[in-house]
Design goal:
single chain; 2 domains; nine-stranded mixed sheet
């Protein structure tokens, strides 16, 4: 590992930069060079584009052409998991809930961070026609904005497990290419993991499988939809469930003679419902909430979920208090 005169610096050559990244990784390189991790990742992306190669650090565990498993499994003996979805990231200012998510990831030190679908928005490659002549972000701009925000979350998460459960908007990125250019399947750049290598991808995550009063299924799209679907989802699943997709935020509790308490959670949306990404609603009333959820486990059993909900543009409600973000 480089030491002394061989320590990395902000102005090192591209060859030295590549060597340091492979040996140290982006976070450690930024720390030793005195630069920002965001700028390190930007330099990595620029070199990947110009050299047409994949640049990974020593801790990258995921193949850039990996297939996404149907289910990821996670065990949490004691500790919390922060779950947020429906980011619908565009270039520009970050939402209140996104600032809060980053803040609480850093402060609560969860065992895992789960991005529960629709991190990307991808309006330019939607199957839906445009709504007139509105201006939509270019896909590469949206991709770079998502990389910046997810790098912030990954840095705040530290050694926590980082999981991304794909949503229907995330699917647009690969579905478009798989539909019109299937021959590109093994070319670098056509998979989300080419651009977000730090995050495990899957369709669902089962926490504490087979633990009565602790098993929790996290996935983007619920089993049933509708205003009163939470109890139905829990009954069908037989365990606690956390979903996104509907952009609502709600919580129900179910118990019977045989079970510990089970919970159904709509965790809300990280995006702001007033954002231009949702103009397709044509100014209809939206029973949506900006926020996310913290699931906490003790002896692998879950405590009552804690919702974080937007209060105003600079404040979130969380655990009976107002948190400035």
């Amino acid at each position: 590992m480089p030491t002394g005169d061989n320590q990395p610096g902000k102005l090192c050559s591209d060859d030295d930069f590549l060597r340091y990244i492979k040996e140290l990784g982006p976070a450690e390189y930024a720390r030793r060079s005195g630069g920002s991790e965001r700028n390190v990742h930007k330099r990595i992306r620029n070199l990947e584009r110009s050299l047409k190669i994949r640049i990974v650090g020593p801790n990258n565990k995921f193949s850039p052409t990996q297939t996404y498993p149907g289910r990821l499994n996670l065990e949490v003996e004691n500790g919390s998991v922060l779950i947020g979805g429906d980011f619908h990231i565009w270039p520009g200012p970050e939402s209140t809930a996104l600032r809060a998510f980053k803040k609480l990831v850093a402060e609560t030190k969860p065992k895992a961070v789960i991005l529960n679908g629709d991190i990307m928005d991808c309006p330019q490659i939607s199957r839906h026609p445009p709504m007139s002549w509105e201006s939509l972000p270019a896909l590469h701009e949206e991709l770079e904005a998502a990389q910046d925000h997810l790098n912030d979350i990954a840095k705040a998460a530290g050694r926590a497990r980082k999981i991304w459960l794909l949503g229907n908007h995330d699917q647009r990125f690969e579905t478009r290419l798989a539909t019109v250019a299937p021959e590109f399947k093994k070319i670098h750049g056509v998979h989300l993991s080419d651009h977000f290598g730090l995050w495990e991808k899957g369709w669902s995550c089962l926490i504490n499988d087979r633990v009565e009063g602790g098993a929790t299924m996290v996935k983007h799209i619920p089993v049933s939809m509708g205003e009163n679907s939470l109890l139905l989802n829990v009954r069908k699943s037989g365990i606690s469930v956390v979903n996104n997709h509907a952009h609502r935020q709600n919580l129900v509790q179910l118990s019977d003679y045989r079970h510990f308490d089970l919970y159904g959670v709509d965790s809300g949306m990280i995006g702001d419902k007033e954002h231009a990404a949702f103009e397709y609603t044509q100014d209809s009333p939206k029973n949506w909430r900006s926020g996310f959820v913290e699931m906490t486990y003790s002896g692998k059993r879950h405590l009552a979920p804690q919702l974080a909900t937007k209060w105003d543009d600079k404040t979130m409600q969380f655990k009976g208090d107002l948190v400035r973000v």
